[in-house]
Specification:
Strand order of the largest sheet: 6-7-8-3-9-10
Order of helices and strands: HHEEEHEEEHHHEHEHEEHH
Distance between the termini: 38 Å
Number of strands: 10
């Protein structure tokens, strides 16, 4: 099974040739086969088959209720499903589960909560009670984690005082520490202004290249998807279309869902 999955993957073969003799590089891919989720007698997702790779940003688009979030939750093994998910890494070594990073749609923050960004980071990464004074090594850890998304200057700010975009960048810092095999972003920027959206997409794209990880991003921002995504998946309770942004945006399934006005010049 292991050799078959990699042997049948042109992307992995090309990458293997490109990385030959380069110990710093690695090969990984995730093959999703016949994935289905049912609620009673109704399919929420039906027969999803996908092949995704490290170093690529794959955007998931579709109408509300099409099964996009269900798909991510299924990968996290949070809901019952049928089908298989094969994760392959390096020399065809199969791991039962990849390491996931996850950024939700939003973080519920109580108004006027005294919790600082540094407190949040320590609560997620350390067993030390956050009410104890921070030690030098705690502060070093906080700034090291936040520096990955350029948010170290937010360490002393209260979480409740941050903008939506700032909160999501902090959450992204936590999601990529330690570096995951697959980063899942569930429409993480609802309500964020346009400049914040573009900055977040640029940051995610840079993390994908720097850390060579697989990224799955749910988004409704079709123009930014066209600019930053390597691959687009149109979900409508199954895979309605997949390919490059140009291929998907010019597919009949996309036209039916978004209309001709949704097609972008890409």
């Amino acid at each position: 099974m292991e050799s078959r999955i990699h042997a049948n993957c042109n992307r992995c073969s090309d990458r293997s040739n490109a990385l030959h003799g380069n110990a710093a590089g690695h090969i990984c891919c995730t093959r999703i086969e016949h994935l289905s989720v049912k609620s009673g007698q109704e399919y929420i997702l039906e027969d999803v088959n996908l092949h995704i790779h490290c170093g690529e940003l794959t955007a998931i688009i579709g109408r509300n209720g099409a099964g996009k979030t269900t798909f991510l939750r299924t990968l996290l093994d949070e809901i019952p499903h049928s089908g298989t998910v094969h994760f392959m890494k390096d020399n065809c070594a199969c791991t039962s589960k990849p390491r996931f990073g996850y950024v939700p749609q939003q973080l519920a923050v109580e108004q006027n909560s005294p919790v600082s960004v540094g407190d949040l980071v320590l609560a997620c990464l350390s067993r030390r009670p956050v009410w104890l004074p921070q030690r030098k090594k705690d502060m070093k850890l906080i700034r090291q984690v936040l520096s990955s998304t350029g948010t170290a200057d937010l360490a002393d700010r209260r979480v409740c005082d941050l903008s939506g975009g700032e909160i999501q960048r902090v959450m992204l810092s936590l999601a990529v520490n330690p570096v995951p095999d697959i980063l899942l972003l569930d429409e993480p920027l609802s309500g964020v202004d346009r400049s914040g959206l573009a900055g977040f997409y640029a940051l995610v794209s840079d993390l994908r290249r720097t850390n060579d990880i697989t990224i799955l991003l749910i988004s409704h921002d079709l123009d930014l998807v066209a600019k930053y995504a390597d691959k687009v998946i149109l979900i409508d309770r199954g895979i309605a279309a997949e390919g490059t942004p140009r291929e998907v945006y010019n597919s009949s399934a996309f036209m039916d869902l978004f209309g001709k006005t949704g097609v972008l010049e890409i």
